[in-house]
Amino acid sequence: MSTNVTYEPLTPETLATRLGQLESVTSRLGPDHNQWSVKEVGDGNLNLVFIVVGPKGSIIVKQALPYVRLVGDSWPLPLYRAFFENCALTRQAQRTQNCVPDVYHFDNAQALIIMEHLKPHVILRNKLIKGERVTGLGKFVGEFCAQTAFRGSELSMNSADKKAEVGIFSGNVAIPAISESLVFTDPYFVAQMNSHNSLLDPIVTALRSNVELKVRAQRMLMKFASNTETMLHGDLHSGSIMSTDGESKIIDPEFAQYGPMGFDLGMVTANFLMAYFSQPAHRGDDLDDYQEWILSVIGESLRTFRAEFKRLWHAERTGMLYPATLFEDQGHDSSIACEQVLTDIFSDAMAFCGIEMHRRCLSLAHNADFEDIVDPAIRAPLEARNLGMGAQLILEAETITDNASLISMANSYNRRNML
Ligand code: SR1
Ligand code: MG
To answer: How many angstroms separate the alpha carbon of residue 86 from the centre of ligand 2?
Structure first.
């Protein structure tokens, strides 16, 4: 398949013939494409995803569609997003160790990425809904977020390299625009594509009437859109993590952009909190133990983020910012500066976290943690706790300075009757 062929979506029927000559594919599946089996398994909002199995092994083929799959061709979306996903995967692979799938082949014209088939990994969100634990999850998430935040920034890179990076990703305009509206703006007014559980109406009306909340959400949007601190995954939720019982990988960085260092940490924390608040509808006798485990994952990921960021600060601060020439070489400790940077990242993360908690109940693209709870009357009180805590996180982000405060806030909302 060559890059000068006009884009055409793959199908389970055409895939084997169309990819059958690619050495990077035949070497992994076996040379005879008539022996391959192809299954389309995409359950995300945007793309086609195929698992292709041959006598020698299996691969994943991910292809962008020219529209938003969740909505249909009434919402066109540029194919160039596959280019940025490939760029992001390459950079994440360089900036972390064994955290993302290997890429075997990229075809820009066909907007497709052929990559490692992670198995027996499954989408983390499904494991959390089922009540399954993943050993080392918090440490993995904390290290991934810290390493990508630090190594994608001018703490690690020189100014020219970093500006070139920002230049590359500034071509990705359509995908950030989705987050700009769906995440930061639509939740706070009656936007066209919104939906919510009508039993939440009183709470939703109160949120949308809260001008301070909207001002703070827009302030975070300004940071998201204008502050190019580091390369973000951009959509780090539990559907972008695949896990076994003891290993995790990060997938799907097509929302990658340069943005604030606290964004990914905030988004992933929000998704753990939504898993936490939804549990009473999914669990039986093991509810308390499992909710405690989710909180321990949040605590571990935040703790690890700080520790890993500090380690990198002292071991790998080779970039334009806070140079050793200005601190260590003068006999001056830079630890206070590191603490200040971490304080800003953490308070940004808390506000982004609250905004993500809101948008997954109020805007387009709700999450299965809540949506799988079929009865709106059972779902509403759990969503209400989530919305309440989200609002407090946005309004008081700067005052939540340690992990314990966040966890005790979650515990407290989990006991509240908000409706
Ligand atoms: C129209 S895309 C909706 C959502 O799906 C993606 O996974 C992102 O979370 C996006 O906001
Ligand atoms: Mg995705």
So the answer is: 13
Q: What's the rounded Cα separation, in Å, for the pair 167 and 175?
A: 16
Q: What is the DSSP string of 349-397?
A: HHHHHHHHHHHHHHSSS--HHHHT---HHHHHHHHHHHHHHHHHHHHTG
Mean pLDDT confidence for 164-188: 97
Residue 49 has pLDDT above 70, yes or no: yes
Cα 86 to averaged position of ligand 1 atoms, centre (Å): 18
What DSSP element (H or E) covers 75?
strand 72-76
Coil, strand or helix at 282: coil
Q: φ, ψ for residue 74 (rounded to 5)?
A: -70, -15
H or E element at residue 51: strand 47-53
At residue 118, what is the residue type? L
Amino acid at 163: K
With residue 106 as reference, give the H or E element that holds it: strand 103-107
Q: What is the CA radius of gyration of the chain?
A: 22
Asked if 96 contacts 106 with a C-beta cutoff of 8 angstroms, the reply is: no
**CA terminus-to-terminus distance, the chain:** 57
* Residue 274 contacts residue 357 (beta carbons within 8 Å): yes
Q: Which residues surround ligand 2, an ion (CB under 5 A)?
A: 44, 252
172's tokens: 């990705």
Mutational pocket test of ligand 1: of 67, 178, 224, 251, the residue with most ligand atoms within 8 Å of the beta carbon: 178
Q: What letter would DSSP give residue 56?
A: S
Position 335 scores a pLDDT of: 98
- With a cut of 90, say whether residue 2 has pLDDT above it: no
Closest by CA position to 359, among listed 266, 292, 294, 296: 266
pLDDT band at 177 (very low <50, low <70, confident <90, very high): very high
Output the pLDDT for position 4. Answer: 56
Q: What's the CA angle centered on 154, arms 152 and 157, to 5 degrees?
A: 70
Torsional sign, CA 272, 273, 278, 283: positive
Percentage of the chain exceeding pLDDT 90: 98
Residues at CB less than 6 angstroms from ligand 1: 44-46, 68, 70, 178-179, 182, 235, 364-365
Tens-place pLDDT, residues 372-401: 999 999 999 999 999 999 999 999 999 999
Predicted TM-score (pTM) of the model is 0.97
d(CA 258, CA 176): 10
| Confidence category of residue 3, pLDDT binned at 50, 70, 90 | very low
